[in-house]
Amino acid sequence: MVNIKSQNSRRDFIRLSSLGIAGAMVLPGIKTFAARNNPIGKKMGIALVGLGWYSTDILAPALQETEIAYLAGIVTGTPSKEKIWAAKYNIPEKNIYNYENFDEIAANPDIDIVYVVLPNSMHKEFTIRAANAGKHVICEKPMAVNAQECREMIDACEKNNVGLSIGYRMQYEPFTQEIMRLGQEKEFGEVLHISCGGAFRNNNLSHWKWDKVMGGGSMMDMGVYPLQAARYSTGMEPVSVTAQTFNTREATKGLADEATTFQLQFPNGAVANLSTGFHANYNFLKVRAERGWFELEPFSGFRNIKGRTSSGELSFPDVNQQATQMDEDAISFAKGERPRVPGEEGLKDMIVVDAVYESIKTGKTIMI
Amino acid sequence: MVNIKSQNSRRDFIRLSSLGIAGAMVLPGIKTFAARNNPIGKKMGIALVGLGWYSTDILAPALQETEIAYLAGIVTGTPSKEKIWAAKYNIPEKNIYNYENFDEIAANPDIDIVYVVLPNSMHKEFTIRAANAGKHVICEKPMAVNAQECREMIDACEKNNVGLSIGYRMQYEPFTQEIMRLGQEKEFGEVLHISCGGAFRNNNLSHWKWDKVMGGGSMMDMGVYPLQAARYSTGMEPVSVTAQTFNTREATKGLADEATTFQLQFPNGAVANLSTGFHANYNFLKVRAERGWFELEPFSGFRNIKGRTSSGELSFPDVNQQATQMDEDAISFAKGERPRVPGEEGLKDMIVVDAVYESIKTGKTIMI
User: Fold this and answer.
1) What ipTM was assigned to the predicted interfaces of this complex?
2) How is A168-207 classified by DSSP, letter by letter?
């Protein structure tokens, strides 16, 4: 391990550790990450496509903490947002696009990465347009509205020789990385059971997340987190899927799935019983293995993930997941390397999500 | 509140509180519960029917801590156990029965209560025989192998004018009682979601708990705890049931259900996603309501229940659940009052258990 003295360096080292690039590259005493460690010798410009809550309140602020990636441009369908963002983040007019002229971004050397933060039903179109424009893509989760769309997105990125990463965040977070290690390296033996739930009370009934056509629904929005957790805790793909959905309020009748429960069985026999919803607030992951257990609560929050195992409390720094992901993805893209959460990872989830909806529709167990 | 000085009295007061009979009846300075507080003026003799692990390691020791109920007799099909128990617990020969001469217990004034601790498929027969012998009955959980058997047992006890209690334990435990209060009194508003699991790794594949004909299966053995928890946390009966079962080991193929997951919806819309099994070790209850949450972990262990709410840690004494239940039931029986967990409570669970197995068999949602 490298002996790091300054306070800033400690934080940087933590970030670097989670980027997997700490160690020999650290030069103690040099304060900024970029000057010290930028393994690609340049910054990478990101354009955010879709300026809703997540871009506004989470990604743009995170891009003030990144050291490789930076906020270079925006793509919005709301003209009034252009000036506000331009002024706030010093974005030149030439880096501002709308959904019609978006394809002209191909000619803009300031933009290396397009981050698609649109409603789920628009992920495919804008990922493919970005790829065709020769830009690397980060696409928000869930990757698309079904597995077939994911395959088309992966194909488009491969054809254009650009990188594709899915905005899952958690794989860049150190508690989550430890859970992945404990499960996949069988630290406590084979995983036997996973109980996991991620849900929030969503009272904003006019939001697109309640609209099936826009790719809404609790399974799409929050269900992918317990699904991811079951997959990353085991390192396996499920072989069977059952699912149920529940309407809990008069006001949400006819809207996208409000509360959904689903069960996976893995090739080693392990069972996962998972819950998601727009009906209640909960966020926990409990994994039980042959010789012990490990758990996180919250497990998919933006900050302050907490965890413990049958051997004791887990202790890791609290990182800015989005900043870490964008920096690490920027490095991967620049080096032509596969990002930590490539399109294939989003596809694997969406194969299960398709099965969840198929099971809900048919009442049957879906074998994958 | 009564000012209690002595150490013993503190423990007694706790026990009394959970019995709901503390307060004005407490006479400080008098040491034994029975002498001080016995509201029925006598002890009540219990005969344990079936001397397996639970009777041997749990109930008989608990009966050394009771102050109203006491171990007066045994009923066993294993002659070698008779002498061991007689010597260890000073049981006179006239209070020892086998399954053939059991009905002669009717003439034995030492036995007030028969506690049925047999395999589940024998609960009905011995409960009805005990009732016909004029004895009050405590029957282990699950009450029987289906709802129809429960109804026959309730009828037999009513006809013979004897009490019937189900050995659920948890309703006599103070953390559990607080959870019931928080949910049923809507302390944090309407309950919206319950995640609960109770399971243990059962490697004793020759035990009757793996034998369907004997009333085995994880749903029967452990599944009734999460089911109870969902019911006592809401104070409601579910309106719909879905369920799935999983075989997780080659060695358990063809045996009773190994890992079972089930989902309940309640009349207020609340969803419960529940897990049980013989495949893994876990034991937790998480309740989410409109304005807060409450949870126990473990929630159905014999000792050391722990819990917290969105307002902070819960703090209650650790009680001997079995001793508390047997004392309280003895008092209820002697007074001709309805016990805390009457046969009707076991029946309500078994109606849902029937629906769980029906859903597993048909793949359908069962409306209750």
Assistant:
1) 0.89
2) --GGGSHHHHHHHHHHHTTBTBSEEEEEEEEE-----TTS
